[in-house]
Design brief:
mainly beta
């Protein structure tokens, strides 16, 4: 629905008389409404069109079509070659495919899910969520030889523009390795803007 009058907070002026008290009250009310909307949706007035088009829900969900292997004593970046969706250009399938890079500052929720296949040696495997290269979350499982492991990380993080988040898989020395299971629902990385 298009609005009949564009948003306007200019001081109202009558045709031949000074602005009335009612005009001033309406102007103050509009300013108050704008300030409160900006607390919920900081960029609501960045779009110059009426009605406002607001996409404050920056989000993405990525996975890898293939499996990724890790050997004992190694740490390997999980790359994501397929985007289920990417609202806000948070991920690239051509450059730094292991990353989700923040553009809009705020709070974000991250979900990492990975089904791992243990190799022929019993031992631990771990997935990690890193922010700018520093670990901020991890999930670990110890399994038997050829075991199937499901690991999940759920994390809320404050971010500024250019912060990046990435995942790694860790194989522990002397405990063998393993690999992620290929497929859209087997290993994925999701991010959503909270505000």
């Amino acid at each position: 629905m298009a609005y009949s009058v564009s948003w306007n907070e200019a001081t109202p002026v009558g045709a031949s008389t000074a602005a009335s008290t009612l005009d001033t009250e309406i102007q103050d009310l509009k300013k108050s409404v704008r300030e409160r909307i900006e607390q919920v949706i900081p960029t609501w007035d960045a779009d110059g069109t009426d009605p406002k088009v607001i996409d404050h829900q920056k989000r993405c969900h990525v996975h890898n079509a293939g499996s990724i292997a890790v050997t004992a004593g190694a740490t390997v970046s999980l790359t994501w070659d397929t985007e289920e969706f990417d609202k806000g250009t948070l991920h690239s399938t051509s450059v730094n495919t292991d990353r989700i890079t923040i553009i809009t500052p705020g709070s974000y929720v991250f979900v990492v899910h990975s089904i791992l296949l243990k190799d022929a040696t019993a031992g631990r495997l771990e997935i990690r969520l890193n922010k700018n290269g520093t670990n901020i979350g991890r999930a670990q499982h110890e399994g038997d030889a050829n075991d199937v492991m499901t690991l999940n990380i759920f994390r809320i993080s404050e971010a500024v523009a250019t912060d990046f988040y990435a995942c790694t898989i860790v194989g522990f020395g002397g405990e063998g390795g393993g690999s992620t299971v290929a497929g859209v629902d087997s290993s994925y990385f999701s991010c959503g803007f909270l505000g």
